[in-house]
Write a structure and sequence with these properties.
The chain has 307 residues and is mostly helical. The protein has one domain: Na+/H+ antiporter like fold (Up-down Bundle), CATH 1.20.1530. Helix content is 79%, strand content 0%. Helix 2 runs parallel beside helix 9 and helix 4 packs antiparallel against helix 12. The longest helix has 28 residues. The mean pLDDT is 87.
Length: 307
């Protein structure tokens, strides 16, 4: 019941978003506006406040950053190697789908509800770090299959520029700077950020549910299923083993595993379209992993509670 109390509300909110979108109560343009509000305003406010309030010694853990980066690199390149005979348009998409987590829209809400909001400071740091890692890695695996063919260099440059301009990265960096300098937020600023950040988690879940299109699973259900298995079980499994080996436990172990155990990020289908990847396959991986995450995240919470 404790696990259901953690996971079920997350997917009820997502289900509400899906039903309202499916019945035409919410249009695609409105949901896109919700997603922009979370990405550019609410989530940065939440992560900035979490990073600014947490002592730097508690929020920055090099062991966690090293394990997350290592597990992600191993997952991406293992899938890339395993799909050597796949068409170039599919190979990079499969590798990207196996490692790129929906950290902010699904992973962070699940981790916050399971571990408590005290994990937000540390989560802000490793999410900001992994946004950079995953963006660079996605560009690499999507470009490599086309190395003998002309590739749109502008798309790769735009993707790299988005890393520098990413509001999640900027807000985490600003929060860390405040923490390092010992700057305490004025009460009025802190309360304002708290109110803005409070909408981030529920609205992110609602928007994620509203973006689900079950019809896209028809594109390539079998490939989407095995990549979803890697994304939801193998990738967070490597994170779990690495963090255990590094000596982490409690929330310091559970939070990264749950965030990285989130389904494939929606933006992966956009990257696939921009960089000559198989966009229908990318969309199928996103939907398939999102549906499967109801069961996998429940399993991870059970394992982490038992451990």
């Amino acid at each position: 019941m404790e696990i259901l109390d953690t996971v079920l509300p997350v997917f009820v909110v997502m289900g509400a978003g899906y039903l309202l979108r499916a019945t035409g109560q919410i249009e695609a343009a409105v949901n896109a506006a919700f997603a922009r509000l979370v990405f550019y305003v609410a989530a940065p406010a939440l992560l900035f406040r979490g990073a600014a309030q947490a002592p730097l010694s508690e929020s920055v853990d090099l062991r966690t950053l090293g394990v997350l980066a290592g597990a992600t690199l191993v997952t991406a390149f293992a899938v890339y190697a395993a799909t050597a005979r796949a068409a170039p348009a599919r190979r990079g998409v499969l590798a990207q789908g196996a490692h790129r987590s929906n950290m902010v829209f699904i992973g962070l809400p699940v981790a916050a509800y399971a571990c408590g909001e005290e994990v937000l400071g540390a989560a802000a740091v490793f999410i900001g770090f992994m946004v950079i890692v995953c963006n660079l890695l996605s560009v690499l695996v999507l470009v490599l299959p086309h190395h003998r063919r002309p590739v749109d260099g502008g798309a790769a440059r735009r993707a790299l520029l988005e890393i520098v301009e990413n509001p999640l990265i900027l807000s985490c960096a600003a929060g860390l700077l405040c923490s390092a300098c010992g700057i305490r937020l004025p009460v009025s600023a802190d309360r304002s950020l708290e109110l803005i950040g409070a909408i981030a988690l529920p609205l992110a879940l609602f928007s994620s549910g509203a973006s689900i299109d079950l019809g896209k699973l028809r594109a390539d259900g079998r490939a989407a299923a095995w990549v979803a298995l890697v994304k939801l079980v193998v990738h967070p499994g490597l994170v779990y083993l690495g963090l255990c080996w590094a000596g982490l436990e409690g929330a310091a172990l559970a939070c990264p595993v749950l965030v990285m155990g989130a389904p494939t990020a929606v933006v992966s289908s956009v990257m696939a379209r921009e960089m000559k990847g198989d966009e229908p396959l990318a969309a199928a991986i996103v939907i398939g992993s999102t549906l499967g995450s109801l069961f996998s995240l429940s399993g991870w919470i059970w394992l982490l509670r038992v451990a």
